[in-house]
Amino acid sequence: MPRILLTGFEPFDRDTVNPSWEVARALDGWQTDGATVQTLQVPCVFGAALARLDQALDAGPAPVLVVGLGLAGGRAEITPERIAINVDDARIPDNAGRQPVDAPVAAEGPAAYFSTLPIKAIVHALRAQGLPASVSNTAGTFVCNHVFYGLMHRLATRPELAGTRGGFVHVPALPAQAARLPGMPCLPLETQVQALRVLLRTALAVRQDIAEAGGALH
Amino acid sequence: MPRILLTGFEPFDRDTVNPSWEVARALDGWQTDGATVQTLQVPCVFGAALARLDQALDAGPAPVLVVGLGLAGGRAEITPERIAINVDDARIPDNAGRQPVDAPVAAEGPAAYFSTLPIKAIVHALRAQGLPASVSNTAGTFVCNHVFYGLMHRLATRPELAGTRGGFVHVPALPAQAARLPGMPCLPLETQVQALRVLLRTALAVRQDIAEAGGALH
Amino acid sequence: MPRILLTGFEPFDRDTVNPSWEVARALDGWQTDGATVQTLQVPCVFGAALARLDQALDAGPAPVLVVGLGLAGGRAEITPERIAINVDDARIPDNAGRQPVDAPVAAEGPAAYFSTLPIKAIVHALRAQGLPASVSNTAGTFVCNHVFYGLMHRLATRPELAGTRGGFVHVPALPAQAARLPGMPCLPLETQVQALRVLLRTALAVRQDIAEAGGALH
Amino acid sequence: MPRILLTGFEPFDRDTVNPSWEVARALDGWQTDGATVQTLQVPCVFGAALARLDQALDAGPAPVLVVGLGLAGGRAEITPERIAINVDDARIPDNAGRQPVDAPVAAEGPAAYFSTLPIKAIVHALRAQGLPASVSNTAGTFVCNHVFYGLMHRLATRPELAGTRGGFVHVPALPAQAARLPGMPCLPLETQVQALRVLLRTALAVRQDIAEAGGALH
């Protein structure tokens, strides 16, 4: 059965939980439209995260879909990312203590890759289900963007992955995290898992994205 | 059996749902610590809301607790209010088209009343349960503050309500509302209801509030 | 010549400058409508700040106007405060290391005092001059609110101050502060001083505030 | 004398002023390090803005520097943009009523271009002067990004512009705009002009950007 590879991060920045991994593992083995979700926890470490992704990509047939998940503390919505950029610029050290500044993710790679997920259709479907979602135009410059760019670079350059689509989605904090950080928005795990089901189903079903304004003035 | 009076608002500002009422009615008849929750929907109308509150207060023995709920679109947490102020200053018209500016809620009332709920203990208990909460130092100047002030004025001035404690709590938008308002934080109904259970239980149990910093620099 | 007493705070929270004092001292000796500005630096210390205020109030005839200034880091506008509340609740220690929690400013004082400045007319005049301003409904619970409440309590209870009007105004950070705190809004000193001139002139001229909506939904 | 081409936008979204143009024209003819600022007002119209840019690029020798300015309502700082992306996605119509959705800026262009301004050195220099500044990782998807991408595409593909560096900088609203939009951060024109002087001087002087963390977690 075709596989969907769904990645989440280990905790970082002194936290003990990361919703991106909690959401992913809640969906491990979930089947939809003839595909099965396979999950992968990646370390919050530049380089090592992509090495781990490579192992999972190589271990089996090409996935139909690869979706990376990451925590965006401070965002209130499920935010499919539009674009991955070729830069590592770490505001804080990663889990291995590395803090690259303005280094490329891939030395010979282009400046950026667009997501090949139908991000507009996904946002449309989520909102229609009463779930808060918006397109994001920046995945930052930390390990989330690093994994996103690294993934899209592999999908664009490896012949065996030519038929695989992929992208990255930031998710909000969990209530238990927000309970420690006054003012931070959150979404409960069940709501996030429900949103990811809608997202994956839409990503499988829609190959030509819809034309619906989802831009930002700046 | 002693009653807890729990009020919520009808929808306002062109919306079709108001989480404050959804949360209240989900708890109608709920029993805790020997008290039963009785719910009341109040109109989002200056004056009429308090008339409706008066009816409910008069219809039966004095409640042990009266808790008003209101929607705070844009807040991400359950926020027990610290203080009600004696002013109506409406930025938008209420549901009857009234828009008072700098009018007192009660002509002869004091400038403000403090909540008599244990707001610090409530925030502490909610956070301990992994639920996002903070003390708020302003309930605004619209119908929420109007009901809050009107309630506290009644509790302070009517002899038969001398033993009744009360206060007001703002709640976030629901996911379905946030899905229509990009960027708005939300909490699902079940999470809000769960929080209100913790809140009411704590309010009944704690008569002397705890001393835990919960202030704001400005 | 009648005096306007204008207070500003010393720096706090490990900073080396406080715009509230910079603005005040830039206006020392400024004359408008037959009154002269006299400035006073107050320590960012519960209790000691009011002792210093008392000295200045006692040293000479009753001022026609007393305006307290304080920094509101994170606010983008000049914000005249509507109400002072009778509580000290310090999120961080003051400059003497004190951190009161839920203590009254004045043991026998009422829950709150409204500003006796024409806050709506002030906001109207500032905006008309192209200066960003809004009414604020909370001055927080730190030393700013402490000074504001303490001031209004003195104006309300001391017969010799019966004719003195007063209030409190929060001001934004300075550009040099914002340059150290990415994302923080700011206003240059000259703009803040210009705004205070408009504010004091309006406060002297308008004795009956205008009725213009300036409220908050929550 | 070598020229620096500095562009600003005409007003948009029903406003009557645009700080990006006010700042630009205040610097028209300003000389620094042997170069002279030449200014250009571009329409807030997809396509037409780039046609106007082309005219200015063609009318004379290649500039040493081309810097586009645009308003970012809601931002509090001077924000040099890191990257221009190949997409037009308009949340609101432009000044000609056009509202492209997910159309490329340049049909055959790459996904993105990095700014060739020393954005880290610029932010460092601005902060050192007490001026609020941060790197931005998204210029949005409206006409600002359109001009930024179009500019970088021309610099990358036209041989005669091979020696020209360029980029885009978003600036905050002016106080008079913030006075009409409660809560919006702003910076006075003089402060913005002062910042642009520092920015242009730094851009001319620094050819190899400094390595200083300026990234975002998301």
From TrEMBL, chains A, B, C, D:
Residue ranges of coiled coil: none
Biological process terms in GO annotation: proteolysis
Subcellular localization, as worded in the UniProt entry: Cytoplasm
Keywords (A to Z) from UniProt: Cytoplasm, Hydrolase, Protease, Thiol protease
Keyword Hydrolase recorded: yes
Catalytic activity: Release of an N-terminal pyroglutamyl group from a polypeptide, the second amino acid generally not being Pro
CC terms in the record's Gene Ontology section: cytosol
Listed GO MF terms: pyroglutamyl-peptidase activity
Function according to Swiss-Prot or TrEMBL: Removes 5-oxoproline from various penultimate amino acid residues except L-proline.
Protein name as annotated: Pyrrolidone-carboxylate peptidase
Species of origin: Pseudacidovorax intermedius
